[in-house]
Amino acid sequence: MLGKFNSDTAALQRRENLNAALAARDLDAWIVERTAPQAGERVLDIGCGTGKQVFHLARRIGNLDILGIDISEDAVAAVRRRAGADGVPGVAAERIGIDECVDRLAPASFDLILSTYAIYYASDVAATMRRLAQLARPGGRAFLSGPGAGTNRELIAIVRAVAADDAVIADIDDFLAAEQIAAAGRQWGAVALHRLDNEIAFPSAAAVLDWWRNHNSYRPEIENGVAAALAQVVAREGSFRLTKNVLGISLQRP
């Protein structure tokens, strides 16, 4: 189920800005290294948000035909405005949900399909991954990425310590199970896993709270206690380091 902040364009943009500014590793560059997009290719970005990956590819590669899709009309409108204002050719955006994208777009033929921190919001992730092969041309590929095991563990530990009830967030595992990945690989023809060990170094408790207030794990009733615990960590260690491990899945058609 979509959390309230996953269709909130302002919250999404705020998290993206903080991640980009404070992360130890560049997620966009890591994705490009593993997908090797080429000029002239047709690209689909599923769950494109406000276009972070769309415009990174458009700037870095150029001469791409990129379609971003998202369930948020605000996000789609933001991509369209930016493409027009910045004069970026080849970029389009449509309001299409993940569950309907194959039926809406088939028999489109894409060279590269991306989904960055989005595909797991499908109602049936495993089926969606398999069906995406219908949108890829022969030799086409997909790269799906999302949280890896251990993500956010430092903040989860603080929330658990502060919360006075049992309604605390669970540990984060890989966003897809091994059997789901294997099934998708059989449908596509080839599958490979990639991992990025990353972290965000927040310089202050206020910066962590800024991030957390725009995340689905946020609980306003315990903010004061979390803020105090964060301040102690920053005073002791000079920053608050939050694990942001990434799991990437490469799929390719014969």
Can you walk through the features of this model?
With 254 residues, the chain is of the alpha/beta class. It has a domain of 175 residues: Rossmann fold (3-Layer(aba) Sandwich). It is 40% helix and 22% strand. It is built from ten helices and nine strands. Strands 3-2-1-4-5-9-6 form a seven-stranded mixed beta sheet. A two-stranded antiparallel ribbon has the order 7-8. Helix 6 runs parallel beside helix 8. It is globular. It starts with 8 loop residues before the first helix and ends with a strand. 33% of the residues are buried. The N terminus is likely disordered.
Look up the CATH topology of the domain at 4-147 and 175-197 and 245-252: Rossmann fold
Strand order of the biggest β-sheet = 3-2-1-4-5-9-6
Q: CATH class of the domain at 4-147 and 175-197 and 245-252, anyone? A: Alpha Beta
Number of helices: 10
From the coordinates shown, what is the CATH architecture of the domain at 4-147 and 175-197 and 245-252?
3-Layer(aba) Sandwich
CA-based gyration radius = 19 Å
Uncertain segments: 1-7
β-sheet strand percentage: 15-25%
Q: What characteristic shape results from the CA principal axes? A: globular
Number of strands: 9
Largest sheet: 7 strands, mixed
Q: What is the succession of H and E elements?
A: HHEHEHEHEHEHHEEHHEE
